[in-house]
Amino acid sequence: RTAGRAMLSLRLRLPNGPSTVQVGEDATFAALRAAIAAVAASPAEALTLSSGFPPAPLVLNDSDPIRGTLRNMDTVVVAVGASSGQAVAPAGKAKPKPKSAKKAAAASSGAAAVRTLSDIDSPAPPSAGKRRAPPASSGRGGGGGGKKRAAAALQLSSEDGIGSSLLDAVSGRGGDDPAAAFLKAASQSALAHHVAEVTATERYHAALGGHFEIEVLESRRLDGEPTEAVATYKVGRKTKREPFGLLALPELRGVVLAVLEQLQTDQSSASVELLKPFKMAHVSPRVFWNMVHHHGGDVAAGLRALLPAQDWSFLEERDRRLSHKGALNHAAAEEERRRSG
Question: Which of 78, 97, 216, 328 is most open to solvent, judged by the fewest CB atoms within 10 Å of its CB?
Fold first, then answer.
């Protein structure tokens, strides 16, 4: 807390890894997006913010206060890119100029054997001062002077090309190569996901083995219930501390019921899978540690005690991954079911 102003600490789940941000309790949604934009190094208009379990987009106007929607130590999932409802196209942005007939003809006559992603990157056309490519070997047509060198594109047409670009991306030697930039972003996203899965595994095994302590902090709500706690657990010789917002037992029961109701609405197993202890530790550490706080380290047993009338047999089922052909057949069956329904 700062002098005279109460602050909210929010945990951020960014595309490139976790972080935190602090805003005033009386901050507006616009102020929150601006603060997160500074941490994410992205324009506020390009951010989509989600919260809750399972995460759902925050539907607020820029002038709306965040009080009542977000609490201290809540997790906010941040997506960068085009979105619906939150991202707004920046005003005054010039429309791209249409290609001239000459440039369109040159693009269509290029080497068709190379598969590129240049339309995604939309590189700027080369300036007039750059050196020109040598004339075609056939020596026919097109006049003298040669054609301008084409803008850099993602050369991903061979294993050697992919391997070289990936090596440059992870070693920082990519420079302005769009292929290296593309692969670097992909590798960073994969690394962040892997780190989150490893942390979830450590969290899950520490709770199940009873190698943890939960300290309830002094902060209280108006009704006297505590609002914050810290989970401490060991991973090898290291000790990890994870602060989280406390949920009263009725609130925790409501969260679990909401996930179960969503399952009944969309008739899909995707929602209920999130209630499996390991996956809960991954997607929502706050709900996971609250289950541990109220019911002990065996989260599966805690769910059965929380809602004894619910069928929890799916907790014992192992994940089954469909083959490529099986996935195609499943998708076709789902499409047929939607059409007939």
Answer: 97
Instruction: Give Rg (Cα) of the chain.
Output: 26
Residues 171-229: pLDDT tens digits? 555 555 666 666 667 667 777 888 888 899 999 999 998 989 999 998 888 888 899 99
pLDDT tens-place string over residues 280-291: 899 899 999 999
User: CA 222, CA 21: separation in Å to the nearest integer?
Assistant: 25
Buried-state track 3-42, b at ≥16 Cβ within 10 A, e below 16: eeeeebebbbbbbeeeeebebbeebbbebbbebbbeebeb
Q: Whole-angstrom Cα distance, residue 318 to residue 131?
A: 60
Give 72's contacts (C-beta < 8 A, 6+ positions apart): 8, 9, 10, 219, 227, 228, 245
Nearest Cα to Cα of residue 118 among 68, 126, 226, 319: 126
Residue 234, number of CB atoms within 10 A of its CB: 14
* One-character DSSP codes across 211-245: -EEEEE-S-B-TTS-B-EEEEEEEETTEEEEEEEE
**Whole-angstrom distance, CA of residue 324 vs CA of residue 299:** 33
